[in-house]
Amino acid sequence: MCGIAGVVNAAGVGRNDVWKMINSIRYRGIDEQGVEDLGGAVLGHARLAVVDPENGMQPMSSTDGKVWVVFNGEIFNFIELREQLKARGYRFKSRCDTEVLVHLWCEKGEQMLDDLVGMFAFFIWDQRTHTGLLARDRQGIKPCFYAPYQGGLAFASEMKAILALPRFERKVNESALGHVFTFNYCPPPETCFEGIRHLPPGSFMRYRAGEFSEPVRYWRWPLDGERVEASQADLENALDEAVRLQMRFDVDGGLFLSGGVDSSVIAQRLLPQWNRPRLDAIGLRIGESGFSEYAYAERVAADLHINLSALDVRPADIVDIANAVVRHAEQPHGDFSFFLFYLLSRRAHQMGKIVVFTGDGPDEVMLGFRHNEQFFSEMTRANFPMRSYFDLISYSTGKDHQRIMSPSFLPHTEGALDRFMEIIEPFGDLEPMEQVAAYELTSLMPGNNGVKGDRMGACWSIEARAPFLDHRVSELFARLPITAKFHQGVGKHFLKQAALRYYDRDFVFRPKTMPTLPIGAWIKGPLYPWARDILALPDGGRFERTELQRMLDEHRSGLHNHTKPLRTLLMTKLWLQEFFPENA
Fold first, then answer.
1. Whole-angstrom distance, CA of residue 170 vs CA of residue 180
2. What backbone phi and psi angles, to 5 degrees, belong to 42?
3. Strands, E, within 21-79: which ranges?
4. Residue 211: enclosing H or E segment and its boundaries?
5. What single-letter DSSP state applies at residue 196?
6. Cβ density class 269-285: b for 16+ within 10 Å, e for less
7. pLDDT for the residue 57
8. Which terminus of the chain has fewer Cβ atoms in its 10 Å neighbourhood, N or C?
9. pLDDT of residue 53
10. Do residues 239 and 465 touch, judged by C-beta distance below 8 A?
C-alpha cells in the first residue's frame, strides 16, 4: 500500500510541484518517498515497504532505465510472472513486485493487465516512445483519480494530492454533492471536487502523441452469460489460492475478525497457511444491541486459537476522530462505518501490524446486505420495478430536500433517479435482482464500500488484504445462478452453505448485523451537542439552518427518525469545513 502521484505533458510543472503532491499523502508510504522528472512526465511515490523493503524504491525503472513506473498496491502473482519473464531473458535487480510491471510492459504492452492478479493502480512511462499507461485493478480496490492540469493530466492515489498542486482551482462539484443526499455517497466516476474523476475499476488510459485516451475497459463483471454452478471444493480451492498469494509479505500481519460469516470463513482458510508465530485478530465491541458481533468473534477465536483483542467503541470516539475521518475519506459519506475502519486501523497500527486480512467482498456480489434481504423477502414477484429499489436506497426524499435545502442548492439534488437508471442501463437485460447486484458492484462498492478499507487504513499505513476480492473468487460468485446467491430470503446463500462445514446453522444463518454505529441513538443523547454544533456550522448558503436544527430536535424527541438524512448532513457539513473553509 503506497501513494502515487504525477503530472504528464503539463506546462511549467516540475519536481517541486509533484513533491507537494507526495507530501500531502506521505502517510500512505512512510518508508520512502521519491520524485523523478522524466521530461514529459514528472512522477512521485510514497512507499510502504511490504515486500523487499531494501530494494523497492520508486519511481522505479527497468534495468536499462528506459521504462519507469509508480505503483500502489500488490501484484500477488509477481513471483510466477517474474519467473516467466526471466525465462524470456529479462534481468531483475530486486525481488519486489513493482519491477515485474516495467518488464511486463516491455513484453506485452497493454495486454499485461490480463496477467495481473492483485490490487493496483499504476502509471508506466516509456521513455523510448514517450507513451504511457494509467491503469487500475479490476474491482477498484486501489484508488486512482485524475484531472486536467496545465494542458496535461494530473493523477494520484488521493484527491488531496491533486488539490495540492499550486495552480489547481478547488471548487465544489455541486451536482455531485447534491447526489450524496440520495445515495449517501457520490456515485463514481464523478467526485465532489469539480474536475477530478475516478479512473473506473478495470480500466486504463493510454497516453500517445501528447494526449490521454478516455478510459478503456479491460475487464467487466461477468453478470450476464451462462450461469455456472460451483461446489464447496471449488470455493475452498479458489480461496486457498488467493490466501497463498496474499501471504506474500515481509512485515507483521493480522486479521480483522468481526464475527460475521465472511471474516469467520477467511479465518478458517487463512490459519492453515499462516506462517507467523501466531495470528492476532481485532474485533469490534459495541455495547448497544444489534451493532456488535463480538461474541461470535470470540467463539471463532477460541475454536481456532486466534489471539483476539477487543476494540470498544464509545460515543466520545466519534467526536475525537470525526475531522480526521472526513479528511481521509475526502468526500462526504454518511456511512459511519468509516469511523469503525479508522479505529480498527489505528489499533492495528498500535499493535505494529502493516498487513491485515479482512472478509470484504461477498455482500455486493451475492446480495448479502440486510436491506436487500428485507426488500426481496417482501416482494411478491421477482420482476419488481427498479424504481422501488431506488426508493429503498434513497437516504433522503424530495420532501426532505425541499425542507432543508436552500433555493440555490435544491436544484442540484434533482436528477438522482436519472443517475441511478444510467448506472444500471447497461444491465437492463438482466433480471432485477441481478441489476441490483450490478449497481452495488459497479457504483456502491467503488464509490463507498471499497473506499473505507483503503482510505481509513492508508492514514495509519495499514494495507488491507481481502481474499474474497481476488478477481477469480469474485468471478466465481458473480457467475452463480441467482438462486445460489439469494435463496428463501437469505443473501450469500452459497457462501453460507459452504460455511456450514465450519460452523453450526445458528451461527451461519443468524440475522445479519451491519458493521456500523448506533449513531441515530447517540445523537439523541451523548452526541446531541456535537451534532447541534456541526449543523450550525456555515455551509456556503446550501442549507436552511433553522430547519436542520428542527430536524435534529424532532429526531431527539422521537417524533421522527431522521437518522439517515442527519448522518449525511453531519458529514457534509464537516467536509465543507475541511476542504472549503473559506467558502463554508
1. 19
2. -115, 120
3. 32-37, 41-47, 60-61, 67-75
4. strand 211-212
5. -
6. bbeeebeeeebbbbbbb
7. 81
8. C
9. 64
10. no
The string of DSSP letters for 144-158 reads -EEEEETTEEEEESS
Q: Which residues of 227-261 are buried (b: 16+ CB within 10 A; e: fewer)?
A: eeebeeeebeebbebbbebbbbbeeebbbbbbbbb
| Cell numbers representing residue 333 in the block | 459519506
H-state helical runs in 467-535: 471-478, 482-485, 493-499, 505-508, 519-522, 528-535
**Which tens digits make up the pLDDT trace of 251-273?**
999 999 999 999 999 999 999 99
Using alpha carbons, list the distances in angstroms from residue 255 to 105, 235, 362, 497: 34, 20, 17, 23
pLDDT in tens, 361-400: 999 999 999 888 888 877 755 668 899 999 999 999 999 9
Separation of alpha carbons 530 and 508, rounded Å: 38
- With bands split at pLDDT 50, 70 and 90, how would you rate the model's confidence at 49? confident
Q: What is the pTM of this model?
A: 0.96
Three-state secondary structure call for residue 272: helix
AA identity, residue 144: C
Distance CA 361, CA 232 (A): 17
The whole-angstrom separation of Cα 541 and Cα 49 is 45
Q: Once rounded to an integer, what is the mean pLDDT over residues 54-67?
A: 85
What is the per-residue burial (b if ≥16 Cβ within 10 Å, else e) of 551-566? bbeebeeeeeebbbbb
Beta strands in 76-171 (DSSP E): 118-126, 131-136, 145-149, 152-156
In angstroms, rounded to a whole number, what is the distance separating the alpha carbons of residues 202 and 326?
Answer: 27
Alpha carbon distance 92, 476 (integer Å): 34
Q: What is the pLDDT at residue 517?
A: 86
Q: Dump the DSSP string for 472-485.
A: HHHHHHHTS-HHHH
